[in-house]
Recover the amino acids of this structure.
């Protein structure tokens, strides 16, 4: 008998909780007495599996929706972790598959074991005294990285032994791996990371975000309810200003490679997370590899760049319409000849937000905001190779240069997360206009706050356009049904 979407998610929650409890109890017993789990006990340490079977009879329903639809008849499966957290997402994907297409849902225990670090909070609470990690690994499932991959997202998956097709881009093992990495890199619990993400390469954007967030939390009618800081500190709406400031300044953000600040909303439309991903394409890839498993609605890059045209002025904006990928980090996964398109919905929202925030329109806005190609390098000192790079940049008609934007956009394309890039020109390296200390300080004071608010306004505009935001431009021919 087929389950309803609600029954299926209930069953997933039950099976995942049962397996996690059994694994934690076995770990506790082993650390206390050395009792090794039996083969029968170990068979309980497994993720639940979700299967949707679609065998159409008659005319196939047509939908223009980009997700929650089948590409071909068959059995679609995936293992699932943290179903309670992903409940709303799972229901949004499953309901159209059953109500519109007539798919049937089954839930069972899979063959995929849950690695023991993924059922612990700190990751090492079961290591006591002389007990070593290697001893735990002898008797309990471990996260074998050979089994963690992006074959589905990259289109290299092989049809299952039972003739099954993938239901989702990421299986449970891949999701759990990234959830733990997010905590490690960002310093915040993955449960608090919001579906609207701002990525930046300068801490000053974070500083302005925190000022704005504290102002929002001070408003009694604000939709925002709390701010979760790196290290776990929380500022809530209505907190005493002295207490809130103390919590904010006590956050150990410097202890984390890419600190995240998460501003939560209470109306169900999703709050905003800002992450200082730092400088370079490696950081941009690392962050987005792991953020993607949360299936965010959008990530936007707001950071600094170098202007490449004489007509540009420091403080002008660049709205990326195309990307010249000299970052190289994703070349093996997505060949450079594959075009990474600009997403119309995001581009329009970014331009509208710039109009709203700056108060400029038409020709006045064009003088400050230019669209064109952004080139991203993996070498910060690319200028030292100008004689070799000049011709390539000229052919691309590039108007700005940075180190992260092409990576972030390519990752969005590859991992099916809507993306956009709006940069602010902080120097013009080819024209002798470099960031001297005094000029840089004046630039930061003037430009960063306005730039941040354009990003926030863009998110507000996109909140009401989810149906068109998750567009078919990001979907492949053999796409899994789940977004």
């Amino acid at each position: 008998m087929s389950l309803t979407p609600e029954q299926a998610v209930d069953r997933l929650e039950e099976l995942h909780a049962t397996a996690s409890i059994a694994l934690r109890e076995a770990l506790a017993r082993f650390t206390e007495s050395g009792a090794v789990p039996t083969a029968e006990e170990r068979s309980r340490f497994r993720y639940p599996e979700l299967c949707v079977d679609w065998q159409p009879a008659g005319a196939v329903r047509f939908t223009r929706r980009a997700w929650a639809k089948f590409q071909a008849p068959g059995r679609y499966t995936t293992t699932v972790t943290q179903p309670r957290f992903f409940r709303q997402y799972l229901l949004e994907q499953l309901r159209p598959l059953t109500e519109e297409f007539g798919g049937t849902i089954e839930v069972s225990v899979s063959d995929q074991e849950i690695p023991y670090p993924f059922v612990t909070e700190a990751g090492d609470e079961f290591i006591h005294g002389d007990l070593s990690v290697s001893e735990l690994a002898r008797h309990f499932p471990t996260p074998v990285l050979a089994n963690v991959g992006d074959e589905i997202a990259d289109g290299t998956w092989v049809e299952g032994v039972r003739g099954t097709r993938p239901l989702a881009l990421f299986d449970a093992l891949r999701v759990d791996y990234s959830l733990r990495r997010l905590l490690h890199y960002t310093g915040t619990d993955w449960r608090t990371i919001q579906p609207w993400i701002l990525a930046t390469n300068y801490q000053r954007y974070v500083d302005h975000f925190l000022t704005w967030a504290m102002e929002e939390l001070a408003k009694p009618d604000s939709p925002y309810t709390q701010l979760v800081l790196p290290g776990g500190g929380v500022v809530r709406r209505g907190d005493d200003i002295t207490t809130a400031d103390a919590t904010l300044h006590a956050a150990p953000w410097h202890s984390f490679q890419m600190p995240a600040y998460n501003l939560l909303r209470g109306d169900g439309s999703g709050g905003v997370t800002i992450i200082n991903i730092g400088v370079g394409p490696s950081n941009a890839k690392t962050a987005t590899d792991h953020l993607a498993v949360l299936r965010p609605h959008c990530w936007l890059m707001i950071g600094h760049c170098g202007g490449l045209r004489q007509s540009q002025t420091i403080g002008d904006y660049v709205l990326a319409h195309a990307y010249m990928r000299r970052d190289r980090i994703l070349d093996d996964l997505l060949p450079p000849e594959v075009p990474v398109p600009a997403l119309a919905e995001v581009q329009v929202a970014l331009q509208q937000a710039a109009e709203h925030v700056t108060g400029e329109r038409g020709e006045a806005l064009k003088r400050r905001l230019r669209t064109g190609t952004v080139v991203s390098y993996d070498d910060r000192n690319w200028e030292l190779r100008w004689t070799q790079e000049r011709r390539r940049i000229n052919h691309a008609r590039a108007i700005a240069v940075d180190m992260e934007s092409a990576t972030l956009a390519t990752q969005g394309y590859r991992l099916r997360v809507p993306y956009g890039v709006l940069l602010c020109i902080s120097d013009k390296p080819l024209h002798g206009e470099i960031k001297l200390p005094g000029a840089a300080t004046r630039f930061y004071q003037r430009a960063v706050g306005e730039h941040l608010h354009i990003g926030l306004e863009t998110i507000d505009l996109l909140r009401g356009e989810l149906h068109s935001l998750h567009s078919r431009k990001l979907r492949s021919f053999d796409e899994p049904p789940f977004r």
